[in-house]
Amino acid sequence: MAACVQDPGRLRDLAERIRARALSPVDLVQNYLDRIEVVQPLVEPWRQVDAERALATADERARQAADGQFLGPLHGLPFGVKDIIDVEGLPTRCNCRALEDCAPAAADAEVVLALKAAGAIVLGKLHTTEFAYFDPSPARNPYNPAHTPGGSSSGSGAAVAAGTVPMALGTQTLASLNRPAAYCGIAAFKPSTRSISGYGVRPLAPSFDTVGFYGWSVDDAVYAYEALMPPGRSPIDMSPALGKARVVFIEDELIDDMSADMQSAHLAMLEAFEAAGHPVARLPSPFPFKRLVELHRHIMSYEAGRALAHLLDYPPDTVGERIRSLIAEGQGRSTETYLVERAEVMKYQKTFFETFERTDVFLWPATPGPAPKGIGWTGEPKYIAPWTVLGGPIATLPAGMPIPLSPAAGQKAQFHQRAEVLSRLRASL
Asked: What is the rounded CA–CA span in Å between residue 185 and residue 187?
């Protein structure tokens, strides 16, 4: 129901108000805690709220602000953490019954540590599908609790959309950041694959596992990402020489099953770009995207079969059937075939980005349609899968359109940081 949806606030605005001492971090954190009390029984995005410690940290950030001491661009801003990511003092249960009584993490994941260093405050842990795969969490869609919020970062997407936190950490191995954002009507930013440290994050398939960010808008998600950059370095290049964004819509049979509503929304997005003066081209992929989906499945299952093999030591009733089946499937794949398929992926990556060397933005629907009814299925992931395999950054606009950004051929450093187009999109849309 729409009553569960609420704008949690803009990160830049909140940060500026804290810096101007017009907003207390304590009041801000308490506001979100009050919102959680209202929303949690209906949507259930939170696995564990660390209220006492969050308020204590907020009080410390308030005292620092009063003294003119600011740790970084996220000073005093709370965030939620997907429950496959370690937070010191809190258990990492991965929505798995086998880990229900696990000990609290002894240290923060590196990404959590970096956000804390930038001044952010951990509000708690957010629900995830089991080990970031398909067995669903209790989280529901804030627009209608009878529908899925997507997965695997189900709690992260729902928490932001419900107004309980202004930013949240998620991860993506298949479509786990961008699909929940599309279903929940918010924004997500998946950086280039593995460009953020995965230390302290439970693995599923290391070739694809990537930490990313949720916010109400693309600007919020990117602002959180920017906060992790070293001083004096930003992933956003605002050079006027870049001119208008060059936009390409890839035509591929993979998305032939788009719903009529999604087709209309996608056409409207293309027209909006054209009206804003961005050159838009409709071009075929140099290879079938269906093959990328197949390769993703094979590689993911192989790696999950090794990364999660220890789960088979637990009683069968404590580990979900879907994750057990994935592990078994992966263990049945040979290393020789895996290496051949990895090489095939690299070939496709090279071919794609050389073909579209001068493209800034690829416009593509995030899902075939709206969030499915029921929470037993997290929705169709195949629309995002090819872009995850290609490895570049992907932003999901609240309209439900992910925007993979391409690198210039041969510029590996820019490949990991290139997000300049997002700033133009904010102005255009």
From this structure: 7
Higher pLDDT, 409 or 313: 313
Q: Is 423 a catalytic residue?
A: no
Is residue 18 included in any domain, yes or no?
yes
Residue 178 clears pLDDT 60, i.e. is over it: yes
Q: Is the dihedral of CA 101, 320, 200, 403 positive or negative?
A: negative
Q: What is the average pLDDT across 234-261?
A: 75
Q: Helix, strand or coil for residue 190?
A: strand
Residue 195 falls in the annotated catalytic set: no
CATH number for position 170: 3.90.1300.10
The catalytic residue among 24, 125, 137, 152 is 152
Judged by phi (left if over 0) then psi (alpha if -120 to 50, else beta), residue 131 lies in left
CA dihedral 192, 273, 360, 189 (to 10 degrees): -10
Residues sharing a CB contact under 8 Å with residue 328, sequence separation 6 or more, in sequence order: 305
Instruction: At 174, list the tokens.
Output: 């298949």
Nearest partner of 425 among 397, 383, 384, 387, judged by Cα? 397
Encode 44-62: b = buried (16+ Cβ within 10 Å), e = exposed.
bbbbbbbbebbbebbeebb
What pLDDT shows up at residue 233?
A: 56
110 in any annotated domain: yes
pLDDT in tens, 408-419: 322 232 333 333
Please write the tens of the pLDDT for every residue from 124-133: 999 999 999 9
Q: What is the mean pLDDT of residues 319-347?
A: 98
Among residues 176, 192, 301, 406, which one is catalytic? Answer: 176
Tokens read off for 147: 């529908």
Asked whether residue 405 carries a pLDDT value surpassing 60, the answer given is no
Helical segments of 162-241, H only: 178-184, 218-226
- Identity (one letter) of the amino acid at 308? L
Element holding 131 (H helix, E strand)? none
Q: In whole angstroms, what is the distance from residue 195 CA to residue 168 CA?
A: 17
- Choose the weakest-confidence range: 27-36, 212-221, 378-387, 394-403: 394-403
163 assigned to some structural domain: yes
Determine which one of 82, 116, 125, 190 is catalytic: 82
pTM of the model: 0.92
Domain count, the chain: 1
DSSP letter at 17 equals H
Active site (annotated) includes residue 82: yes
